[in-house]
Amino acid sequence: MSQKPGVHSLEGFSVIGTGIYLRGTCEQCQDTTLPNVILIFGWMGAQLRHLQNYTHAYTKLYPNASQIVVRCNPDVFWTTTGTRQRRLMPVIDALEALHCFPSSSSAQPPPRILTHVFSNGGSLQMTLLGHMLKRKYGSTLIQPFTASALILDSCPAIGNLKTIKLAFSIVIRNPILRVIVLAMIYTMHFVGLGLSLVLGKRIMIMENLRIEMWNPRVLPWMGLHTPRLYLFSRKDKLIPWQDVTQHAETAKGRGMDARCELFEESEHVAHVRVEPERYWASVQDIWAVAISKEKVEDQRLLE
Length: 303
Hints:
The relative contact order is 0.12. The chain has a single domain, classed as Rossmann fold, CATH 3.40.50.1820. By secondary structure, the chain is α/β, with parallel strands linked by helices. α2 crosses α3 (119-137) and α4 packs antiparallel against α5 (175-199). Helices cover 46% and strands 16% of the residues.
């Protein structure tokens, strides 16, 4: 039986690790107004045929940019941190090969990195990568002024047992496996809640995730100069739009350039299907903001 195209592979990508895919380019991106590296963190259980809709669009928009796609399996919520770190190591290897860090090649100009994150699953993967990079490179990772933008599609949100149950019910079709997984998740939730009360500090995964996402350097090349675009919808049953709005407003209050694009009719991580032109126009607009900030900083350094 032949495989359906796009289901078991990403067209034009190489598999470089478990759930990690790389699309390298033969030519370097000479246009300094365009990103040369695009990081995509998929939502929990995202199928390759769905992620391919985004990789294809990015290939058309920025054909000379390398792309790294990171999938998120449901076990991200109970797998040990050490295992998750090992799975993400190929991402660091790829970023090094693409000259994103000072140790790669001192002659290389600062990279231009666009990061696109989907849902809380993708956010968990991104924040863990940020911790790994900080431990490995520390302050040496700071570039003179790296052009960067962060796109947050359907995230972040605090989450509750109702939304957690809905999320895993969508991803895990096998009813027996679903019951087992939900039992594990409920147990972890109540254990975390109990420990939070006993220790007097929050250790709930989703609450900690929201706090980490307020870090302007959630990835080391980012900063207050990095514009953020929140894409979300009133009809999203998994990520309440009020949670996303509140997160964006808090980010603004902390000095970050946070912008919101609120959709009315789309479901979770489905905004691009309902209004593709508006979606991709917003992506291009936020990157234009990132480049304009880079030019202002370059001019300031020359003065």
